[in-house]
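Below is how a single chain appears once it has passed through the pipeline. First comes the sequence as given, then the structure the pipeline wrote out for it. We keep one example in the README because the format questions we get most often are answered faster by looking than by reading.
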Amino acid sequence: MGSHPEFATAECDRLADLLAQDRAGELVMADLAQQANARLAAAGVPGRIHLLKNNRDAEGNGFGCHENYLVRRRGDFWNDARTLVPHLVTRQILVGAGHITADAEARRAPHSGGLGYSGYVFSQRADQMWDAVSSATTRARPLINTRDEPHADAERYRRMHVIVGDSNVAQGSTLLKVAAMDLLLDYLESGGDLSDLTLADPIRAIRDTCHDLSGGALLELSDGRTMTALEMQAEHLDRLRNHVAGDLEVTELHAAALDLWERGLQAVRLQQPELVATELDWAAKHQLVTRYCQLHGTDLTDPRVTRLTLAYHDVSPEQGLCQRLENAGMLRRFVDDEACRRAIDTPPATTRAHLRGAVVARAEDLRRDLTVDWVSLRLDDGASPTVTLSDPFCAADERVDALLENMEHSATDLPAGV
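Resulting structure:
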């Protein structure tokens, strides 16, 4: 667990399901924290536990938000991974979670553009990255981890494992982050090319981009040209708009993400984060701390400001700010609260998560011991053969039906009271 709690969403093939699953994970974590605090109080232990959905602790240790995209196995995987790096380097000007840097970090990059504080930057995660593409996860901290572990039919699929992203609170940030990658991967698999945008030094570029809130950090490309972070993101958006204008059908949420992408770039370009402060984390948090500092006549070094930023990431409905901001209309919901709560124990209906969920739920009802991972289902008593679900997009399987039927029959054979 890396000294911090983690959760994973179920497999999703729809953006609405992913947003609901992500929030459901937060709700589960919040409930666990509440239970732990109740036990501490009952035992007379002072203090309380706060669970934060962020990427850094008080000592500067970092932890990532992992995105896993299933892609077709083909010979261009490594090229695709490398050509996605410029997008991953610069997307933080849109989907970064916002961060107040420590004094040393602020001194290293004293210019923050026209948005105010030199200590406020786009991303918590950017300064923690040390490689562009690598099989390592902790030692080198790459933007893309290339470990070949698809959790699916390895002859058909491979995993694009992105570990550079910030953990987002605002649903708009999560939507844009994932929808953009979804469309870019489709663009590449359809023959699109991003190789002309390759960066000369991605790690320097990600740091320069992070610390320049104007979006004007000048990035050197491999061919000697230069582009700003804003220009890089605008170029990616333009190519995707042309791609979508073809025969590709996009969902309502994909269209919303493209619109937010354009408006987010405009907010950075005009130095007006308030234009997207109800949808993107970095802008929402910037607005919170700016107003607080103006109201109280203080600056980012004030411990109360630090407490405010921590509260933004606190998953507790009572202690955290997210739900209160959403209820007040200050953070936009793209998926309603009811759908998110339903996702706690209802898996997506269109992926193998539906099958896994049905078996797990019935095993709990019948008190049957079950071993489960991403691809396998097995009754521990050996009464049925292991079921391997190698197709993540398959939501119906006769073998699972047989397993459920076997569980029912086995349950009727148990002595009363067992």
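The chain has a mean pLDDT of 92.

See the next section for the split statistics.
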